Amino acid sequence: xxxxxxSILVAISIIxxxxxxxxxxxxxxxxxxLVSAFLALTTLPPETVVSTIKEGFGNTMASIGFLIIFGxxxxxxxxxxxxxxxxxxxxxxxxGEKRSAQALGITGFITGLPIFCDSGYIILSxxxxxxxxxxGIAMPFMATVLATxxxxxxxxxxxxxxxxxxxxxMNVNVGNLIIVGLFFAVxxxxxxWFWSKLMIKNRNYPxxxxxxxxxxxxxxxxxxxxxxxxxxxxxLLLITIKSLINLFDKEGISLIFKIFxxxxxxxxxxxxxxxxxxxxxxxxxxxxxNSVFTEAIEKAGPILIVTAAGGMFGMVIKSTGIGEEAGKLxxxxxxxxxxxxxxxxxxxxxxxxxxxxxxxxxxxxxPMMQMLGLDSEWGRILTMLAMGSGSMIxxxxxxxxxxxxxxxxxxxxxxxxxxxxxSTIVMGSVVFLFVWIASLFLL
Length: 443
Hints:
- By secondary structure, the protein is mainly α.
- It has one domain.
- Helix content is about 75%, strand content about 0%.
- It has 20 helices and no strands.
- The chain has helices spanning about 5-25, 30-45, 45-80, 85-95, 100-110, 115-135, 140-155, 160-170, 175-200, 215, 225-250, 255-260, 265-280, 285-320, 320-330, 340-350, 355-365, 375-390, 400-410, 415-440.
- Helix 2 packs antiparallel against helix 3 and helix 3 (about 45-80) packs across helix 8 (about 160-170).
- The chain is globular and about 65 Å long.
- It starts with a helix and ends with a helix.
């Protein structure tokens, strides 16, 4: 089959996913399966169709399954016990009420590390309204600060499903990606902060109306800030320590490496985080724990399925060979990191899911890496961050997170588009700018 024919079929497949999920509102898993089957049947040898689809789905599930489930368990426990509120109150006590927006942004950034952005926003939206009412700060600004601080880590850092699955596809060390990703998420969140502040200037947006204490929290006794931070901080520390040790002991012969070999693995680090989170439960009986486990599995299930289906579609695209051919065409252009960034931007803006955007882009870009001059440890990490920054642009009406932000903040669509959506464009662009600048020194 000619390259032109394969290119047309891949383009038709991507457009089909966009139409099925955005226009016809078909469930993402069904859309991805149907399109993957269509593309495989029309481009691959018949004897490889089933094995390619199964391999793409299975490999993705194997790389992300435990991490997403354990991450969901930590997030749900933090929500149920009021630990997120305890963290927010602690940060607010340090910043002061006049800086409540800063406190909310820091809270979103920290709690967003193990919690998916949509869940995190739902959990913390009451705090955003409360902080807005008490400080008199415009609600669209508060809502955007919270939304983008959660979003910055969601698109860049494991254990979030897009970054996690793409890291598996690209063979990137998860620990290193977490460490480096944090440094790039910060300027992205700050850029969204300043842009959203500019967007509300001279607009007379009102603060949220005063709400009662009963509405602020459904917890009458919050856990301590120290215990609330532990399920987030300890796993990150363990992963970070092991990654730093790997830089100096690549052979893995030192005693300290042997000590942190297992606890520093992301799966076990998050499992330890789950254990620490369960300590926050007021009732530590089997029924209470099972209730958390059940809710986490129910929440993680759809995410796992869609993410694995994205990996399935990506594997089919990779198997067509179009990525390698595109790499040859782009090899001498010198645009390098711009390729994964722009592909992710197009995928995200068109179909709405950051997870699908980054997974599809990873599979498309992987065969090009050597020809683009990115086939090195730093090249792969920066490629991951370029895709992550592209998957931020732009969160609008075809993104479910857009509607979570709009509905839970009580904002009309026009205001959400003006303040929040434009902030995601600025945020993604700034992150990519920093990635490109870093590439000048690291590649």
